[in-house]
Design goal:
- It contains 13 helices and nine strands.
- It is α+β, with helices and mostly antiparallel strands and 366 residues long.
- The chain has a four-stranded antiparallel sheet with strand order 7-8-6-9, covered by helices on one side. A three-stranded antiparallel sheet has the order 3-4-5.
- Helix 7 crosses helix 8, helix 8 crosses helix 9 and helix 11 crosses helix 12.
- The termini are far apart.
């Protein structure tokens, strides 16, 4: 077999002859024919399919909600964020704890902001099917750490953040799918009302850290299980037994997992592509709902004469009109407008209102 491979590979083909007793003798012509067929097969495998050139004028130009245009299956949006250049420069040269990624991100943002006279221009893209806007390029604050974003935007405006976005939207979607009849979701609401307490209970119940407990709820929200999470964090098997572990943290974890599965089945029923994982379909549904709410928020902000600086998925930053704006007064004004617009939208969709524990936002001065 090894000698045959040598012949097909072209190594010493002329000198090759079968050496084992009882083998059929092969002449040089047969060797050349075998090599030729092998090379033809190799070329066919490596040949790339040529793409047909699009017909002239067949490209679709898509206009997004902010007036930007894109081609194909992608939409584009652009925002401009005011940067505190001096504060960011001082932070970079100060002797503080910074990771290499934070240092690089801050330097890139600072360089672009200096070019833009204190303003950072950011571009976002998403599929035309909807969902989240994702920032492009390195000079952007969407994917930066909270530390870098807070430093760069110090004193430049405020941030509007959706409270418990994934859990709130999951409950809303599940109730809307059923017709709005269910008012249960004991464990989902228990965790949403006090995340810190829930994470501490899970950490104590499973003998792990609060960071691991935080990761558990993310794992359960998007298709994971308590057992898969426990293996990843090296938690002993006895702790993961639902019947042996009767701690409050274990009850919360398994109750949360059961309700997420129940709600996810309602939301994804009849949706998604063939063969697509339920967790993927659920994530897409929640992303579309999140973007619908955030679009209402952006409209409310612009209706008050302010501009949106940065999109952070379930949050946005708002630029001050001028540096002398009174922080608390403007914060209260914008927050009340956003609450009113969001309330009208969620009621029209049949979701819970803010008073019933539905979608709500927290405004924070930067």
């Amino acid at each position: 077999m090894r000698e045959k491979e040598r012949a097909l590979g072209g190594e010493d083909a002329k000198e090759w002859k079968p050496r084992r007793d009882g083998c059929i003798e092969v002449d040089d012509e047969e060797i050349k024919e075998a090599m030729r067929k092998q090379m033809m097969t190799h070329e066919i495998r490596r040949k790339k399919r040529t793409r047909k050139a699009p017909r002239k004028g067949s490209e679709r130009r898509l206009r997004d909600s902010e007036g930007g245009t894109g081609r194909g299956d992608v939409e584009w949006m652009e925002t401009v964020q005011k940067i505190n250049v001096q504060h960011l420069e001082r932070w970079l040269v100060a002797d503080g704890v910074k990771t290499e990624k934070e240092q690089s991100c801050a330097q890139t943002v600072l360089a672009e902001a200096v070019k833009g006279d204190g303003w950072l221009r950011q571009k976002y893209r998403r599929s035309v099917e909807g969902g989240r806007w994702h920032a492009t390029g390195k000079a952007q604050l969407q994917s930066s750490s909270r530390k870098v974003r807070a430093t760069a935007l110090h004193g430049q405006g405020l941030e509007l953040d959706m409270d418990n976005a994934h859990i709130t939207l999951l409950i809303a979607a599940a109730e809307a799918a059923k017709g709005g009849g269910s008012r249960e979701w004991k464990w989902l609401r228990r965790y949403a009302e006090d995340k810190g307490r829930g994470r501490r209970q899970v950490a104590e119940g499973f003998g792990t850290t609060t960071d691991a407990a935080k990761n558990l709820f993310f794992t359960l929200m998007f298709g994971g299980t308590v057992q898969s999470w426990a293996r990843r964090w090296n938690i002993c098997r006895e702790k993961t037994c639902e019947f042996k572990n009767q701690s409050e943290g274990a009850k919360l974890a398994y109750g949360f997992a059961g309700e997420v599965k129940k709600a996810g089945c309602r939301v994804t029923e009849g949706k998604g592509r063939s063969g697509e994982r339920r967790a993927t379909t659920l994530q897409k549904c929640l992303s579309r709902m999140e973007e619908q709410v955030m679009r209402v928020v952006r409209g409310a902000v612009e209706a008050k004469g302010f501009t949106v600086g940065t999109l952070v998925h379930d949050a946005v930053t708002v630029n001050w009109k001028n540096e002398r704006d009174e922080g608390e007064a403007v914060k209260r004004e914008v927050s009340e407008t956003v609450d009113l617009w969001v309330h009208e939208y969620v009621v029209s969709q049949g979701w819970r209102s803010k008073k019933e524990g539905g979608v709500s936002f927290t405004a924070t001065l930067l």
